[in-house]
Amino acid sequence: MEKILNYINGVLQEPSSKQYLDNYEPATGKVYSQVPDSDTQDVQQAIDAARAAFPAWSKTGLEERMMIMLKIADGIQNRFDEFVAAESKDNGKTLQLAAAMDIPRAISNFRFYASALQHFSAESHQTPGTAINYTLRQPIGVVGCISPWNLPLYLFSWKIAPALATGNCVVAKPSEITPYTAYLLSQVCIEAGLAKGVLNIIHGLGGKAGQAIIEHPEIKAISFTGGTETGKRIAATAAPMFKKLSLELGGKNPNLVFADCDFEETVKQSVRASFSNQGEICLCGSRIFIERSIYEKFKAAFVEQVKTLKVGDPNDAASNQGAIVSLAHKQKVLSYIQLATEEGGKILTGGHELKLEGRCADGYFIAPTVIEGLAYTCRTQQEEIFGPVVTLTPFDTEEEAITMANSVKYGLASSIWTNDLKRAHRIAEKIEAGIVWINCWLLRDLRTPFGGVKASGVGREGGFEAMKFFTEAKNICIKN
Ligand code: NAD
Q: Distance, CA 425 to ligand 1 centroid (Å)?
């Protein structure tokens, strides 16, 4: 069985313990590769390598740094089909989605920050008649990047690229559930000639390899994307050590549909926002609030479209939905569907797992599920399910819609569907979320600040925000 390897000091190597974890293909439920079960020894080696690489990497000329990052992007592009197949196999997402979103975005992340590093600059402040201040933005040193399983290479590269662009050396850990494209990335980095130790990729469990990274005193900053509970634990470890922290956490995003929306487009995009990647995107609009006058019409059209979604083998071009990422996650999602019925919800479509035939007979599949009749305060509407499950709830007034939208502990993203521009702006200001999409969903410009409020996180990624995070600002004051 194929063994994934750690990437430490420019070399692919086994974990020091020689212990491995099983890596499953969600569409078949079968183990298809082995992931290093790395521990503190591997992390220490990676940190030592990163520290040794830092002086040279941090002084590398901007053009040289840009060129190597572009080479990494090209390396992924040259092996595009291999990356797409690996991401789909590891995560359960369809090949089409990996080809249309995940891998192109990973390439863009490297290209975007390769270009951004040429334009990043710092401020100067003049104190009239007295002094001039300038800000020096210096790389931090060795930083930790930890990412989740839902958009594996997309999010992994979203952290690594700005960290490298700003002259840091990185110890990164992908999710142990979806390690494969990170392994391919380490091969690409070797092929591209990235200097040894600049990027180190450690595979393994969160509580073991991940914890060893975040609690190491030489890791000066941590960029983490994952669940809110994990974020809390990371903050508890890192805060007393005064590490810089960027936390991108869970969501329970509202989708507000007003009677004056473009109806067809709203239904179509709401289906996309609910079920893309089997609902396993932190930005998915999992709570749909609909103005009462169009509630029944919206419900009928929405459910009709959801019923046309084909759940199937991720390799099949006809499949709109692939497999749920793991057996444990499938069970979690099903338990929330059970909870919804206990809370009085009515299942309009879906509500059960699906048994496929042939290759995927033992895979993890759930029918896209639409539920109505639940109070907006119940657990099903308050807790993150992170699967193909969405709730429909009517509202009567704009104020009520905002109250419902803001009632959760999360505050990541939101969508508003209306043709009343004044209303859109009014609500956008009041929504407690880091991102408000008006008449769209998941329309991304990589220059914009990305992140959440409340339990959805601390700090912003994206554009120069990420580059500011990965640098320390130093004020130099020169008296006239
Ligand atoms: P998770 O929190 O279980 O794991 C995320 C990563 O953290 C994994 O690599 C894991 O191994 C590691 N980890 C776990 N415990 C750790 C510890 N003690 N120390 C260091 N690392 C540790 O999350 P998941 O289940 O992989 O991903 C799903 C979650 O991610 C959802 O809640 C989703 O909303 C969230 N998410 C958020 C965003 C965002 O941008 N805000 C994007 C995608 C996913």
A: 32
Q: Decide if 25 is catalytic.
A: no
Residues of the chain with pLDDT under 50: none
Q: Is 282 a catalytic residue?
A: yes
pLDDT score recorded for residue 393: 98
Give the pLDDT of residue 203: 98
Q: Is 461 in the pocket of ligand 1 (CB under 6 A)?
A: no
Rounded distance from Cα 150 to ligand 1 centre (Å): 9
Catalytically annotated residue among 282, 284, 291, 465:
282
Residue 438, pLDDT score: 98
Q: Is residue 180 part of a domain?
A: yes
Residue 462, CB-side half-sphere exposure with 13 Å CA sphere: 14
Report the pLDDT value the prediction gives residue 317, as an integer from 0 to 100: 97
What would the pLDDT profile of 78-110 be if each residue is shown by its tens digit? Answer: 999 999 999 999 999 999 999 999 999 999 999
451 lies in some domain = no
For ligand 1, whether the C-beta of 234 sits within 6 Å is yes
- Which pLDDT belongs to residue 355? 97
User: How many whole angstroms from 390 Cα to the centroid of ligand 1?
Assistant: 21
Residue the block writes with tokens 């640098």: 471
Ligand 1 atom closest to 229 (CA): 2
Regarding the beta carbon of 230 and ligand 1, being less than 6 Å apart is answered yes
Say yes or no: 26 and 118 in one domain. yes
Tell me how far apart the alpha carbons of residues 250 and 453 are, in angstroms, rounded to a whole number.
Answer: 10
- Are 242 and 282 in the same domain? no
382 lies in the same domain as 466: no
Smallest CA-to-CA distance from 233 within 211, 251, 212 is with: 211
Residues 98 and 174 occupy one common structural domain: yes
User: Residue 455: what pLDDT?
Assistant: 98
What's the rounded Cα separation, in Å, for the pair 470 and 462? 12
Nearest CA to ligand 1 atom 30: 226
Give the Cα separation of 143 and 166 in Å (integer). 11
The model scores a pTM over 0.90: yes
The closest alpha carbon to 257, from 290, 286, 283, belongs to 290
Cβ(380) to ligand 1 under 6 A?
no
Number of independent structural domains in the chain: 2
Atom number, ligand 1, closest to the C-alpha of residue 329 = 25
Structural domain that includes position 172 = 2-249+456-479
Examine the domain organization and report whether 287 and 140 are in the same domain. no
Identify the pLDDT of residue 44.
98
